[in-house]
Design goal:
single chain, mainly beta, 17-stranded antiparallel β-sheet, three-stranded antiparallel β-sheet, 20 strands, Outer membrane protein beta-barrel domain-containing protein
Length: 293
Amino acid sequence: MTRGPDYIVDYTSGILLFLNEDIISGFSEIEVQYSSVERDREDIFYSAQPNISIGEHINIAPGFSVVDEEKIAHVSAKMQAGSSNEKSIKFIPQAAISDQKAWAHNYSLIANYKILSINTEYCGFSDDFESFGANEKKYGKLQHGATASASIEPFSYVRLDGQFKREYQIDSLNEQKIAQYSQGKINYLNQGFINGYIFLGKDDLPDYEKKRIRVSAKYNFQILKSSIKLNSIVRNINVKYSENNKSRIIEYVINANFSLSFPLQGNIYFRNNNSYDNDLKQKNEQEIRGTLN
């Protein structure tokens, strides 16, 4: 399972869950990276991994596994200090090595102190480690990668989120590919006033560069015992494949829900989408719909 600021991907059940209803539309581009491993035979898998507690804050789990004729020794641990919502730190190292001297390791550090929270992760694989697809990425096998994310609430109702991710992958021609993702988000969370966020993201990939801007605003209010909810979002996605090959999508959505003092509810929805190739407009699509109950 993989979790981001706006989504959860469950690879086991094949479910992609968006946490905010206004971050996508029918014109959104959604890219899900996944991999699978096909084996033409069945192998018996044996594993033993006891969990050892040392005091209240340290857990160590050494283990040994056998797959076919490959033997793997592995160990994971968790060290934690502090358990309150205002102050805690957790370190989780994991490592494995096979009898063929293939190895893999992963380290996670999670910390929060009052208004600041930090989450970092580093992982690495040797080329011949049997990862069962865990190191399969878009451009090849993952050699090593790191992710760092942080969140801070400097003022009431204001939260700043940021994430940086960098991966070194090796393709079938033994060429190294670097994939880098960075994003930032400013949230205003005062539910009694206009609230929303500004999102900026940039993906630097071997075959293209993508820049994303997303601005969202919401406002809920009551008038004459009637409830009205207004949502709006603007998206701007720029993709650059080369100097002579660029694309851009600009979209804005306005959505209003209302519930009157008498038994009547309704919704008004408007969406406008413009697509460009090398600054030439390719299409313009609009959608307007309304419902009454």
